[in-house]
Design goal:
235 residues; alpha/beta; elongated
């Protein structure tokens, strides 16, 4: 999961980014003011936004209003010290999906993020799936037919980026941005190698990674008759 944290308190932002990455593997991009956040939201793709209201440049209310005006439906959790009923109701009416008052517990923020992203994709069960391939959000593991799918750290990260958008194309640069921020030895060629290895592990098992020229990769279910043919052809 890749989120945009819009928060002007630098120490809090750095702590949140580090803690969410260590605890649950969430990739956190940071914007320290409303104008930067608005620009990034127009140019980049995020799974969710954690938005403070008291921001320099333009405030969080304006950032949220601009998102919804251009039909940006990315889930938004509002963080603020102003925990009044009127504030909460007004923010939710203006397009926020959830509201969390400062100070807050990290576990609660993580749980709310996971729930928002699941709901935004029409999934209420804490698993992501594509055909027989499942990813358990709580256990942070992939499985097929009840058995854990053995993956390296990088293979796991790439497959997670794909299953979060199963059925949709995901560009190489998008995968790089989502899962390998700060990993300087990773480039687009590394993504290609990871996809090649994943394809070998998935062949004949009911799910495949398809290359869509000019768009990227797409994780999709394989029809049962095709799966049977591939299994028979495997050595």
């Amino acid at each position: 999961m890749r989120i945009l944290l819009v928060e002007d308190e630098q120490e809090l932002a750095h702590w949140l980014a580090r803690s969410l990455a260590q605890q649950s593997g969430i990739v956190v991009d940071w914007a320290g003011d409303g104008l930067m956040a608005d620009l990034r939201l127009q140019q980049e793709d995020f799974d969710a936004v954690v938005l403070d209201l008291g921001l320099p440049g333009i405030d969080g209310h304006t950032v949220l209003e601009r998102m919804r005006e251009r039909d940006d439906r990315t889930p938004v959790i509002v963080l603020t010290a102003r925990d009044s009923l009127a504030e909460r109701v007004g923010t939710l009416k203006n397009g926020a999906d959830d509201f969390l008052a400062k100070p807050f517990l990290l576990d609660e923020l993580e749980a709310r993020l996971q729930a928002l992203v699941r709901r935004s994709r029409g999934r209420e069960h804490p698993r992501l799936s594509c055909g027989p391939l499942q990813f358990d959000l709580a256990a942070q593991r992939f499985s097929m037919e009840g058995a854990t799918l053995p993956l390296t750290r990088r293979e796991h990260a790439v497959l997670l980026a794909l299953i979060q958008r199963s059925g949709e194309p995901v560009g190489k640069q998008s995968i790089l941005d989502r899962v390998f921020i700060g990993d300087r030895d990773v480039n687009l060629q590394v993504i290609e190698v990871m996809v090649f290895r994943l394809r070998k592990k998935l062949v004949g098992r009911g799910v495949q990674i398809v290359t869509l020229r000019g768009l990227g990769y797409c994780l999709e279910e394989v029809p049962s008759e095709v799966t049977t043919d591939l299994a028979l052809q495997s050595p």
